[in-house]
Here is the input.
Amino acid sequence: MIVTDSVSTYLKRTRMPPDPVLAEMEAHAARDGIPVIVPETGQLLQVLALASGARRAVEVGTAIGVSALYTARGLAPGGSIVSFEIDPERHAAARGYLARAGVGDRADLRLQDAREGIAAIEGAFDFAFVDGFKTQYGDYFDELLPRLAPGAVLAVDNSLMSGAVAEGRGDDIWTDQQVSDARAFNQRLLAHPELVGTLTPVGDGVLVAVKREA
Ligand SMILES: C[S@@+](CC[C@H](N)C(=O)[O-])C[C@H]1O[C@@H](n2cnc3c(N)ncnc32)[C@H](O)[C@@H]1O
Here is the structure.
């Protein structure tokens, strides 16, 4: 728990009701124990995409498509999101949900390791969301940074790991190693000369950064 109980309850109470497909995705994730972003994080992604006028987005870790749906809904007309997932069942489920949610034509879902997939992509992205295996965050970042356009938004999930990152030690969800890796990764991004970033206590902690103009 990163914010207080009352803040968390207030955030839940003020949430706009999800559309039927998103509600179905959330129920699926809860039933099968699939880790997906909380609604506040989804809204943040949609707002960031909208505010930045993003057209070309990339995501590491589609799961069943919840974060891809929020992001796709924030993209400028004609925009699209490339999203990588290595689990075939999740990838297939995401494909079905996003089509039914009406964003199938703007979601390029790839069943591929994001580290290889991003490395093979030409051109620049103006929005990126990182939510794959935590031990691989450094690898994703190394591939992503040169492919981000000046002014691009980068969002990274689980940057506070249910508060364990601030405590500096593991808990019943995160290991000591994951926490120390996350602290080093956060520090690396926040101090990076090509980025201006901030750590937000939204959801499980979202580090948001913008790539500086050259
Ligand atoms: C936390 S879940 C993603 C949740 C999703 N972003 C959402 O909120 O709707 C992480 C996903 O990343 C996938 N994943 C892990 N490592 C990956 C990699 N190297 N390339 C692509 N997908 C990966 C996992 O299979 C898992 O489904």
About this structure: The first strand starts at residue 56 and ends at 60. Residues 35-37, 60-61, 63, 66-67, 84-87, 90, 113-115, 131-133, 136 surround S-adenosylmethionine (CB under 6 Å). The CA atoms of residues 87 and 111 lie 7 Å apart. The mean pLDDT is 97.
